[in-house]
Amino acid sequence: MGSVIVWLNGTHGAGKTTTSVLVQQLIPDSRVFDAEKVGETLMDITPGLPATDNFQHWPPWRQLVVETARRVLDYTGGTLVVPMTVLIEPYWREISTGLAHHGIPVRHFVLHADQDILRARIEGEHPVPSPFRLKYLQPYAEAARTWLHAEAEVVNTTHLTPTQAALQIALQNSASDGG
Q1: In a 3-state reduction of DSSP, which class is residue 31?
Q2: Coil, helix or strand for 17?
Q3: Contacts of 78 (CB under 8 A, 6+ apart)
Q4: Which residue from 80, 86, 11 is spatially nearest to 56, judged by alpha carbons?
Q5: What distances in angstroms separate CA 165 from CA 26, 31, 144, 152, 172, one per listed residue?
Q6: Rounded Cα–Cα distance for residues 98 and 35 (Å)
Q7: What is the pTM of this model?
Q8: Which of 8, 16, 10, 19 is nearest to 137 (CA)?
Q9: 1 pLDDT above the threshold of 70
Q10: Per-residue pLDDT tens over the stretch 81-136
């Protein structure tokens, strides 16, 4: 069995980070790759790159995510579990096409939850809710309606625990690879 990426998409509060750790524990020979760290590295460049409210707008982020995933999989094989929100369709196309160009299959899952649940999760995380995280609720709803849910396997986490969501993803991943 070759290398594969299990991409966990969805907006903030859907459970990507927590679920990714649990999925990694359920899929043999897998690792979690937090593509946000690539963005953090780019944000540390001085003087800074052109101003933006989201590092995903920088073309090097998308290219480096593909290249980093490819290089890690070339080195280790197995499965990379990537918990990363990508709500802009051309950005998703660039990443998924880049990975396909290198022969890396992507199992794309969207962790979905109802808007009220997402808002409650975000507001319950910290004493002061993150405006950054809250501002992505509407763009997520728009992406889900227009393209995102059609591009992925949707796992509704509204009434699932992270463990239940991880089991569902691991089972769907196993079924697709004949395991």
Answers
A1: strand
A2: helix
A3: 3, 28, 29, 30, 31
A4: 86
A5: 11, 17, 18, 15, 11
A6: 15
A7: 0.93
A8: 10
A9: no
A10: 999 999 999 999 999 999 999 999 999 999 999 999 888 888 887 677 788 888 99
